[in-house]
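To: structure subgroup
Subject: Chain for Friday's discussion

All,

I'm putting the inputs and outputs inline so they're searchable in the archive.
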Amino acid sequence: MGMTDPISDMLSRIRNAQMVRKDQVDIPVSKLKVRIAEILRDEGYIAKLEVLTTGTFPVLRLDLKYRQGRAVIEEIRRCSRPGRREYVARDEIPRVYQGLGIAILSTSKGVLSNRDARKQGVGGELLCTVF
């Protein structure tokens, strides 16, 4: 049986791996998950990402980041869920912790961080927030 919410699963895997101080976490791969991971890397929340195709199923491997023994990602939260989608207009894009965190949106121009979506003037589905 398939997974109901793969993005939520990805965020939970990251959160759980950081709670037990893992260096890496493996996640089943999809284009959307790779794009979310790229945004997390570009914003400095994870160190590295790579797609491994050596096993039976391809996986996305993320190298997690820690600073002074604490995880860089303090909070990662799913906003829009399959049962309750959450959309924001371009002038309603949230500022997470007054600009210290990021929001990730799925827009008509692709998956973007809140800063990029604001620059391009697009709204969309609010996938998650990271701080």
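Points worth raising on Friday:
Helices lie at 6-19, 31-42, 114-120.
The mean pLDDT is 96.

D.
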